[in-house]
Predict the 3D structure of the following.
Amino acid sequence: MVSACLRTCVCVFVFCCADALTYRANVTVDAPAVDVYVINLPERVDKCLCMQKQLASAPVNVHKFVAGKGNTCNLKKAMSPASAHTAFDVNAQASLFCSNYHIWELALHSAADAIVILEDDVQLAPNWFQKVTQMIQTVQLRNRYVVVDPINSGNAPEWMTGSGSIQGIWGTHMTILPKAILGQLVELANREGHGIMDVWYKEHWHEAWIWNPKIVAQASQPMPANHAQAACPDSVRRTDIPRRWGLFAESKFQRMICS
């Protein structure tokens, strides 16, 4: 188990149409405490609303992390050949890494046993959270850094690990992390620097795993038949990674509110 301490969650949901928080009680007993974080740029309200629709019934705390632009975590750049790859905009890649980094820092102080980090351009299967909690309850996560349903993993086994077997697989649109490793990830990033998220965890974390339960897909990719139809606009398919960004203020932490 991620933690021996299991609890019944009191869930907080925030809807864009109301200023106040709406509280719902989770009736699931002895479930692992899981918090969800969604990385979202402030100008991409379309993506925020799409994620809000998909996560409205999730029986957990859902937080929006407002992404800054560029190296908001003030880390050096990891200089391995793979991490130095510049096919995509450097500032955009740094923004994604630093968003993850800041979430690691924040979640260290939470009561969660594990966290799920979502990029804001994903399509979720209706049973995604059930699958996640079942996995956490049955698999010994221990020190695993788990990336879920990445691109190019369609015909892969359900679980994959090892530096060779997962090198050609890309995407970190859903990541599951036990709280126990978050402090170590922060220390590792402080020492090694930031890099392309798809590459960094494979190069620097000793327990990098790919899990392929077919519960999430990046919006730019074909949608599996079992995934939810959230009535989201086609604009959510446009990635923000290739854009040229300048440096911006440090990221802020908020509830899942779209405006």
Summary: The first helix runs from residue 45 to 55. The radius of gyration is 17 Å.
